[in-house]
Amino acid sequence: MTSAVGSINSGKHIRAVTMNAPPVNALTVQGWFDVANAITAAGNDPDCHVVILRAEGRGFNAGVDIKEIERSEGYAALIGANQGCAAAFSAVYDCRVPVIAAVNGYCLGGGIGLVGNADIVIASDDATFGLPEVDRGALGAATHLARLVPQHLMRALYYTASTITAQQLLHHGSVYRVVPRENLDEAALEVARAIAEKDTRVIRKAKEAINGIDPQPVHRSYRYEQGFTFELNLAGVSDGARQDFLARTKGANG
């Protein structure tokens, strides 16, 4: 299987990890672990001072590959997807250097987990963010959406499966810059260069210190959410929701 993730050196002390899983960047179980491994490896490289997490294609990330879950017997793919997402989200948060998320187009489901755990978010002016989980019989990443918007707005977005724009997140302070799509990579690199020129020994300790004073236990709270996804699956609720979603997607694609 070809990895859905690539790592390239984007300049002195800067590593770019690129998601590229056509057609919509919905990642398989292996794809989520690929993201986790690439980010962890970059952070463990002494020559890397900052990581940019970006994507090719129409959107940044469409979450979990639901088709893989539906093709799988039993719960193996579901468990794998949940473990893979937890690993990828944790890799971003625990990366020893700052992670900049450069978000283009749509950022949905697991994409919110990646962005919510990033240190800095740069977005294109066509970027939208949302958690469609309730429409797909699942729960998760409210932990990370709550890092992007205030509590009551998070609840409204979560319950309605609505999206929010990059410009709105800029207003809330969770997106650092919004730029035209063609300028996204350069905008992310501009911020990355400013970090990369610092003493990485100080920046790495700064990352560790900031995580240490974080009031939200992101690892534990996300795993708590995932437990309810398993409950919905065991109750048979999620199967119908996933099948309805795939049927709508097939109909929309002709």
TrEMBL record:
EC number: 4.2.1.17
Keywords in alphabetical order: Lipid metabolism, Lyase
GO MF terms held by the record: enoyl-CoA hydratase activity
Enzyme class, first EC level, given as a word: lyase
Segment forming the signal sequence: none
Gene Ontology annotations of biological process type: fatty acid beta-oxidation
Membership in a protein family: Belongs to the enoyl-CoA hydratase/isomerase family.
PANTHER family: (7AS)-7A-METHYL-1,5-DIOXO-2,3,5,6,7,7A-HEXAHYDRO-1H-INDENE-CARBOXYL-COA HYDROLASE, ENOYL-COA HYDRATASE-RELATED
Protein name: Enoyl-CoA hydratase
Annotated organism of origin: Hoyosella altamirensis
Organism classification: Bacteria, Bacillati, Actinomycetota, Actinomycetes, Mycobacteriales
